[in-house]
Amino acid sequence: MPWELPRDQSARLRIAKGYPFEAPKSSYLFVDGKVEPFSDTEKYGVSLSKRKAVIAHGSNRAPEQLKRKFFRHISGQDPIPVTAIWLNDHDVVYSAHVARYGSIAAELIYSPGTEVQVFLTWLTEAQLERMHATELPGGSYSYGHIKSTWVSADRLDLPIDSIGTAVYRSSTGILNYNNNPVAISALPARNRLLADWSQEQALSYVHGTSDLKNLDQAILRSIDSNSYRNQLTDKLKEQSLDVFHPTYAIVE
Known about the structure:
The chain has 252 residues and is an alpha+beta fold. It has helices spanning 9-18, 63-70, 125-135, 199-207, 212-224, 226-239; strands spanning 28-31, 34-37, 52-56, 80-98, 104-123, 141-146, 150-152, 165-170, 183-184, 189-190, 196-197, 249-250. The protein contains 6 helices and 12 strands. The strands form 3 sheets. Strands 1, 2, 3, 4, 5, 7 and 10 form a 7-stranded antiparallel sheet that branches. Strands 8-6-12 form a 3-stranded antiparallel sheet, with no helix packed on it.
């Protein structure tokens, strides 16, 4: 297991409902489990040009998730720059996938004319290996590159990767609601073409209940029972929308 779930039920519910978690509104530096100003990057001797920029459009943009994945891990001894960007012609929607911690996960899709605010995590080779270990086992995601244009939300001069921008994408498809994707309301967007939901709205839809007590019980069951969670995901996959992206190329 890449990171351990809390045993307390209230803490589990907070994680499940809190996805994709709170993130700063601007670029920051993740250092030893804490958020520091991005301007400290030079002080720590971090060179962005020597790192791999990976789009963080879900929980990986949030300090609390980075802490779960990197705090006290050997690769986490190096700071991680996290830069806010506006990504052109894309949006972030719910995937047809229930995560092991109970949330409905995110997916990046091509959406001409939409700009969505996401982040780039600038990773060392060891940090990228660690991120792979938390994302790729189980086959729910693939890793590759997209051709895209973006601008720094903070007007920073950021390096551009000539082979494209790295990203993890869902292997299970997109959550289908009346034959349309549903955007994640926690991700700011300009000219958004889709309806958007909070995480709790998505969970209510997937579990088929809006009653708070029943929903909480269903969420906890999806965390405790692999078979129940897999049943939910299989049902979502059967109805899912295509995850085709015109420029996405998987890196084997």
